[in-house]
Amino acid sequence: MVRLWGGHKVSEERLRPEDAPPSLYDDQGNPRFFADPGMDRFVAVMMNLAQEVWVQEERLLALEAEKSGQTVDPEAKVKEFIDRVFAPIREA
Asked: How far apart are the C-alpha atoms of 64 and 75, rounded to whole Å?
């Protein structure tokens, strides 16, 4: 299968960093999404923090479900969480 990535042809099922145009990576081989490298690091920190908060949210939901005997839709909860956490990005 041939896929295009930034105008480059890639002929494997999975895209690899070495297949990407060099402009997508910094000198150390880390992916670059923003012009300012500090912003890339900041976004990585925020994503890690969101992941940790979600783990706590899942634990709390499990405890509440165990105590009350009522379960909630996990897909709806994760969608609600993502919408709430990333709302400032969507507003821009």
From this structure: 17
- Residue reference for tokens 């919408």: 83
- Can you give the residue range of the structural domain that contains 66? 34-92
| 25 and 43 fall within a common domain | no
Q: What is the pTM of this model?
A: 0.63
User: What is the pLDDT averaged over residues 34-42?
Assistant: 87
Neighbours of 79 (CB within 10 A): 11
Does residue 75 share a domain with residue 62?
Answer: yes
Give strand pairing partners of 25.
Answer: 31
CA dist 20 to 12, 37, 46, 52, 53, Å? 12, 18, 25, 30, 32
Q: Are residues 56 and 81 in the same domain?
A: yes
